[in-house]
Amino acid sequence: MNRNDVTEKIIAAKVSKGITWEEVARRIGQSKEWTTALCLGQMTANAEQARALGEVFGLGEEEQKWLKVVPYKGSLPTEVPTDPLIYRWYEIVNVYGSTIKELIHEEFGDGIMSAIDFSMDITREPDPKGDRVKVVLSGKFLPYKTY
Amino acid sequence: MNRNDVTEKIIAAKVSKGITWEEVARRIGQSKEWTTALCLGQMTANAEQARALGEVFGLGEEEQKWLKVVPYKGSLPTEVPTDPLIYRWYEIVNVYGSTIKELIHEEFGDGIMSAIDFSMDITREPDPKGDRVKVVLSGKFLPYKTY
Amino acid sequence: MNRNDVTEKIIAAKVSKGITWEEVARRIGQSKEWTTALCLGQMTANAEQARALGEVFGLGEEEQKWLKVVPYKGSLPTEVPTDPLIYRWYEIVNVYGSTIKELIHEEFGDGIMSAIDFSMDITREPDPKGDRVKVVLSGKFLPYKTY
Amino acid sequence: MNRNDVTEKIIAAKVSKGITWEEVARRIGQSKEWTTALCLGQMTANAEQARALGEVFGLGEEEQKWLKVVPYKGSLPTEVPTDPLIYRWYEIVNVYGSTIKELIHEEFGDGIMSAIDFSMDITREPDPKGDRVKVVLSGKFLPYKTY
Amino acid sequence: MNRNDVTEKIIAAKVSKGITWEEVARRIGQSKEWTTALCLGQMTANAEQARALGEVFGLGEEEQKWLKVVPYKGSLPTEVPTDPLIYRWYEIVNVYGSTIKELIHEEFGDGIMSAIDFSMDITREPDPKGDRVKVVLSGKFLPYKTY
Amino acid sequence: MNRNDVTEKIIAAKVSKGITWEEVARRIGQSKEWTTALCLGQMTANAEQARALGEVFGLGEEEQKWLKVVPYKGSLPTEVPTDPLIYRWYEIVNVYGSTIKELIHEEFGDGIMSAIDFSMDITREPDPKGDRVKVVLSGKFLPYKTY
Amino acid sequence: MNRNDVTEKIIAAKVSKGITWEEVARRIGQSKEWTTALCLGQMTANAEQARALGEVFGLGEEEQKWLKVVPYKGSLPTEVPTDPLIYRWYEIVNVYGSTIKELIHEEFGDGIMSAIDFSMDITREPDPKGDRVKVVLSGKFLPYKTY
Amino acid sequence: MNRNDVTEKIIAAKVSKGITWEEVARRIGQSKEWTTALCLGQMTANAEQARALGEVFGLGEEEQKWLKVVPYKGSLPTEVPTDPLIYRWYEIVNVYGSTIKELIHEEFGDGIMSAIDFSMDITREPDPKGDRVKVVLSGKFLPYKTY
Amino acid sequence: MNRNDVTEKIIAAKVSKGITWEEVARRIGQSKEWTTALCLGQMTANAEQARALGEVFGLGEEEQKWLKVVPYKGSLPTEVPTDPLIYRWYEIVNVYGSTIKELIHEEFGDGIMSAIDFSMDITREPDPKGDRVKVVLSGKFLPYKTY
Amino acid sequence: MNRNDVTEKIIAAKVSKGITWEEVARRIGQSKEWTTALCLGQMTANAEQARALGEVFGLGEEEQKWLKVVPYKGSLPTEVPTDPLIYRWYEIVNVYGSTIKELIHEEFGDGIMSAIDFSMDITREPDPKGDRVKVVLSGKFLPYKTY
């Protein structure tokens, strides 16, 4: 057994039971973004969260242990994602990547926006011309240090 | 001459003159995000914007014409970006890609978040533990249609 | 179980029963193009369509549930397809890609032809020198917006 | 000098003179699709077409000779195109590739749709919900032969 | 079950029974080249050929059905083949590719040599300095059409 | 200066002068296949051949010297060729590669068909249904030796 | 002019003048590790450092400006480095990567060792069996946060 | 059974039993770095170490034999690692690779830092601004020899 | 069953029985180099050798048959090998490849060193500064022929 | 100027002057293998060797300085070499790589054959059936150490 087996079991259980990620998140007491990432094998649960997920998805003790092990991260099967929804994000990085770089450096100087001390919030933005997906990303700025 | 030559000339002129993208944006009358993408060869100017950029960066008439031609987009030299700041975004797509997909589908059903009918806003979020980069992405949801 | 298992079961059942995609489409009440894409794991069924497919291919309840889950799309095993029929399409993109880009921009300006708000129609075009495959693609034009 | 130099000169001349591909096509007496592909270095001109293009774009005799040489075809700089408009076509091949294959085989048997004995027609399809790009592809069906 | 399973079963049965491809071809009434390609999952059998192969290799009815389904073609596991015999062919394409292109265009003009309306004949060419492999390839010339 | 410069000069001179490869071959006294490969930078000339090519294409002494240096071989810009004519050969290797391997081993045992002790002959095969390209490849069989 | 031109000029000037990186670092008042990375186009200088480098390497005002622009980072020409010294580091990541991951997680929990808030120190470690290279890496631990 | 099976069994046993690598190392009498690499299938055990690991993880005799066989090394599933922690190391090689090369050559001349006669030590470096990961690498310098 | 299964069974049996390749070679009556390559699925056995290997490793009749089938060659899982020992050989090809090419051409003219009519001998070369691996490669020179 | 420029100048001078690598090696007083690698930009000269090469090839003082700088090594333009002579070596690594690994480990235990403390000797081996290329490689065995 490995973390991947647990992830697959969670996904299959979710389809079978018809629960939403939002409900799962409420059970865990975390945001739906972090909770989904945890369930998809990208984050690490503490004891309580593992137990809660175990109840939600019917996971045994061994499976819950795996949720507490730091996983080998990376959730996409190819370097350039083939799924259209995920590809659009890759396209944003490709088309706007140099723009993002320029503007963060203009505001903050040399460094990066952390993808670790990081949070994400995905919501529906109602719009008469068609609703929009609004995503707020917040990452700590980390300056390169000289030494 | 091609669009790439114009982009390189703009970048060199910006370094030489020491202007910021924010100032350029004010001259164009658009957001700093869209303006920077335009200057970096990813967007298309109208006649007035091309003229304004010509003044800011000292571009000739031929060069301004190129700004009005739709460019071949894509601003990164490799499939997986090597620059740490841009890579963090690729990492977000890699680690959170499946999460983003799940949550948008949970809220909207099958479809994508547009990268065309799309806007981006990058700001500084003051934080006592270290300021953060806040990025708001807004893209129209486009449902797959059946036929 | 996952969507891929359901796709493989559908394909095997189709070979075994000897039905055509056109017949399947009639049962679903959709075009043969969209129906085939659904059966091959690229589209998402509603409840009625899932039930209809369940009957056609002998799928259990759990399998029908998977048809209603948005799939991870992408139906080709390699970046450059090896199958000659599919490769010809990749070749069209490669040889005519810049032509398509120029002509759409000439007519519509900067933007894209949607692959989401999109339909396809494949028919036989009788021709004394040898029948032809006629494919009509229709995608909404989406302009890049300035902001 | 090589064909690529001629292509670049044609593109630069087109930007400078502000002519459309449609006008160029009228001068050549061919469709705008084939003419654009010719100008972008993918097709081969006959003597008359080369002369006409020479006039339109101000090409010398040596340059016209290159238009009559069969080019090394392929108009994209990367295996997976980065430009969003062209990528959407790659995505169509990726998402619908297996569907296209199934339906052509269902109608015609084993073989391919030719990308050589092939024509393409791109037009605007007015639509109250937003105009659409309509592309008609027509390729001769070539059956695999047994021997 | 899929075509690949049938191919593997055929190969294993061939090793076990010790028959040659030439014998199989005689049973099918086709050339040894086409027959081998069929057995290796690259071509499509008609009803009679499927039945004959079923007898030769002990295939059940379901397996015979798969032989009549057009396969996803491509018989090599990597882009650049690692097997020395097959690599030599890739090398011929690499070293002589531009030569082949020049000479076919010199004789026929712009177009291709079909790999679909195509046959191949492999024979032993006795030679006192060491026997040679003689391969005759014959493919219909398909001219690019203007439109 | 390097061999590549000489190759480019030869190609440009050929376009400019309008000579055919067949005529060049007659001047060299070798087959058109080998001569073209030589001119395209894949083979090595002896003193006499270099002199003859020098006359045909107007090459100086330094350039003729380069024709006598063994070149770094490989005439294609990408692993999978994008040019349709050359791609068809790659496709033949991909679709028929395992067939070629099986049949050569069936006839000769373990070993390869040499791509060095090798010759190629490309001719037009008249056919009422459309002329065909006939290519005869002849390579010495080299058995793996045990030791 | 771009940063790459400045980097190449610095490298050529260093060879020509025969200075060591250690001497350059003393002039800048930073460690030799950070200074070398700056000169090789990976870090960003402040005004004083740019002026000092200008003196050391004879750089003009425009060139000094480029040193103050945040560069597009990444100093290797291929994904897997071909240079043996640098490859050994890639090999360490490949062979010990999972070990490093396990031990950092065992000590710190889920998170990463920063490559931004990071310093490196390279020294000679005398050893009778052959001197050793000692490299000390120090990176802040950044925990994944839950939200 | 192969080494990979043994590695997977060790990892699963470790999760199940909740032991740390440090405890395992104490049982083996080696550093935690080398021991972890051994358990993850990168190093080779002697008889005693294999027996000790057998006890710790409940491995049978056959499994212990595999620990004594030199493994095919390399612990990462992709050329560019997707896991953020391991990627940071790849980034260090990418950003600082040329710096490391310059400084080792400046001190030692042409040669490499061995990744075989090599040791690694990972410790926690307490820091009021947030603890740091300190990694000491020590590799013998191997000079290129002339001959 | 296929050749790969037989290879894996041989490797597992070798670990289990603790025999050396040298002993296996003696049983086959061939060099240890060729014998190992045979056992690792790269060469083809004759009837007697297959029988001998069957005895050594406890292979059944079906498995022995597979040893007599010419295998699909290539023993490495990635284009650039990750295993340090094998990578060193790839590095030799990378660093010395152009040198090897120059010197063989200087001595022999245009052609190659055969990897088919080829043998290899690996021995220990005692050396007071540390024993060395001595590898002697011998391959027939094959000249390119003109035609 | 950089090392690559010097390498190209050396190669062009060698063609122009018609000297052999063996003569160059005599002038340097080193083996022809090491000398060729030096001239092709893979090794580092001392002062005397640089001066000698300067005389042989007519290199100026600045160019000689570059010969004394440790180069970024790697002499091949692609991961899998396209040149047939060099490819045969890649094929040897591919086909015999696992064999080489097994036999070195059988004789020496875990470790590698050094590609740094390494020498190579290429000679002609006369043979009535066709002369052979004999290559002797000698590399120090470096054991993995435990710690």
TrEMBL record, chains A, B, C, D, E, F, G, H, I, J:
It is an enzyme of class 4 (lyase). SMART domains: Cyanate_lyase. One of its GO terms (molecular function) is DNA binding. Keywords: Lyase. Its EC number is 4.2.1.104. Residues 75-147 form the Cyanate lyase C-terminal domain. It comes from the Bacteria. It catalyses: cyanate + hydrogencarbonate + 3 H(+) = NH4(+) + 2 CO2. InterPro entries: Cyanase, Cyanate_lyase_C, Cyanate_lyase_C_sf, CYNS_N, Lambda_DNA-bd_dom_sf. The active site is at residues 88, 91, 114. HAMAP family: Cyanate_hydrat (MF_00535). Catalyzes the reaction of cyanate with bicarbonate to produce ammonia and carbon dioxide. Belongs to the cyanase family. This is Cyanate hydratase. The lineage of its organism: Bacteria, Pseudomonadati, Pseudomonadota, Betaproteobacteria, Burkholderiales.
